[in-house]
Amino acid sequence: MKKFLIFYFIVLFVITITILNKDNKELIFKIGDSLSLSKNSFNSRSYDNYFKDYLKNKFEDYIVYGYSNYRIGELKRDISDNIIINNRPIQNILIKSDLVIIEIGIDELMYALNVLEKYEYLDGMINSMEELIKLIKKYCKEKILLVGYYNPSNEDDKYIEYINNKYFELSKKYNIYYLDITELNKKMYFSSNNHYLNDKGYNWLNTQIIKTIY
After folding, report:
1. 27-74 residue pLDDT tens
2. Which helix (DSSP H) or strand (DSSP E) does residue 80 occupy?
3. Does some domain include residue 8?
């Protein structure tokens, strides 16, 4: 009887430790456009590699979804339509996520900076982002991080400051994390022939996300 009890408590201890370790691991869901996909002039995915290496003992699953020129309104539509990602409904992924990283709009911003009514277009993006945040919070009750924008063009920084300030206000209003990335306006962080970041830029961004959340 004594041996049986010892064996029972050993098994119980092992099961408890396993459950606790599993509960400590997170599901991270990163959604967006070319920024989330870590695109640069070489189309590398080094940003994700940096992130995964740092958090390899912290997350149970890491899902990235998006594509170039993905618009804020399109992401909102896809969540409402409950599209399937990795054989799972997106709403279920949001419900299960411990951290949702929103990195969308940099490609759309490039378009906004090339129209005549820039502020009008930016206001439309801001309204769409607010609707997106409200929709994501409907499903995700854990940490949400909204990543702002760097300046992807030669336009005046005032437009970037305008939309980033509005995003910061949204983060306060809806009690989510916000990350300012205007440091990336420095040319040292850009790829040589487009508005995408280079590996140094993605490494900086990754480090700031980790500092903000962890």
Report:
1. 999 998 877 776 654 555 556 666 777 666 677 788 989 888 899 999
2. helix 72-81
3. no
